Amino acid sequence: MTWNRNTIDRRRFLRGTGTALAVPLFGSLVSPLARGEQPRPNPKRLACFYFPDGVPMPLPEDPAYQDWAWFPHGSGRDFTFSKCMEPLEPVKNELTVLSGFSHPKSRSVHGHNNADQFLTAALTGGGDREYENTISLDQVYAKHVGDQTRLASLVMSTDGGTGTARGTHTISFDHRGRPIPAEHRPKQIFDRLFVKSDVDSARRLALSRSALDEMLDDANRMRQSLSTADQRSLEEYLESVRQAEVKVAKAKRWLDAPLPSVDGDQLNLELSTDEPREYLQTMFDLIFLAFKTDSTRVATYQIGRENGVGRSDHLARAVGFNLAHQLSHETKNPDGWKNFGIYCRFLNEEFGRLIGKLKATPEPAGTGTMLDNTLLLFGSASSAFHLSRNYPIILAGGRQMGFQQGQYLNHAGLNFQGGPWLGEREPWQDEAKGEDLPLSNLYATMLERLGVPTKSFADSTGMIDGLIS
């Protein structure tokens, strides 16, 4: 029998959700003019990257300060990179480094608790607080733009899954603050983007014509006999059903769309962190391919989890060290800042490589380069040893969205905390030397330029001056 997607009832989808939604967009690679359509505006993309354990923060009087401090020397457009940041020199005019930003609700929390709130600004911190999170920046944008591509967002990490509360393996959280599982296997990511794993998706969508309608009728009858708490649980469940229905409608649109033609032979898809540099490059390349084929316009990648637990801690072996987290504890040792800086330099090399690749690629069926239409957020939720202030942040790309790059927005000045940990009080336990700005101000600025109809995000207090033309 031939299955016509136009005859598929949107309420027949729950049995076939995964495979039907795991097929990427191809239509954007065909010129709109060739189809007799009006030219579409350039796509706007967002990718967010998180690295754990902070960055080298030697004090100005330390001999290592000049060479291995993560933050640049200078400010505005008059700044220089240290050896730690040197790999970003070729793309210096395509990025802005920011200092003096953090999330207010997390400034007195141990840095290893912070990855969960990096993109949410929520009060997830330590102590006896009940864990509660909110929607992440990427998912706010995915809600706005996700229906325009096959995949609403691509969620990746080196460790995979969700991890634990305050020990997350994902930086993406849905509208209820629930963690979205991240994928860590390059082959599974590639297959999800470019391999149609189920030729029977239409049949699955068409099965059980009345099953869901009957379930909803039963739920409405059941509601009358439920307690208030159980009614809330039922509403949450029905909300997930409504979201599934939206996905059904979307799946019907993409069901017959052909797949992008991508040469997977150029990628080693069987990699693990046993080959750390090539693994990191492949993960970045997968995001590049997902954006180039317009399979999604939203991606997150948690490069490593906090506290040095998991396979991501092995990435330091790319530059001759054993465990990445250990380097942040050993800065008091001879060459400690240098060793930590060499590892951060490795991360900067690969991030700079992605920036350069996007810059060198013309926008498919659009204007400018891919980088001009893509925002890349790269950072951590701690700076000095376990310090939840003055996050190290880089924002790259977005020129056609109005971003002025080639700057160091130094709001911290010299009022920063740093130095090696000597085994006593940690910097996060000390009184702050300066007042950070809410990092949510950056996120609100990004969302506004991405076209989301909002002037705020989480606890933002305004937009960032000097970042937009």
Automatic annotation (TrEMBL):
<protein>
    <recommendedName>
        <fullName>Secreted protein containing DUF1552</fullName>
    </recommendedName>
</protein>
<dbReference type="InterPro" id="IPR006311">
    <property type="entry name" value="TAT_signal"/>
</dbReference>
<dbReference type="Pfam" id="PF07586">
    <property type="entry name" value="HXXSHH"/>
</dbReference>
<dbReference type="InterPro" id="IPR011447">
    <property type="entry name" value="DUF1552"/>
</dbReference>
<feature type="region of interest" description="Disordered">
    <location>
        <begin position="157"/>
        <end position="181"/>
    </location>
</feature>
<feature type="compositionally biased region" description="Basic and acidic residues">
    <location>
        <begin position="172"/>
        <end position="181"/>
    </location>
</feature>
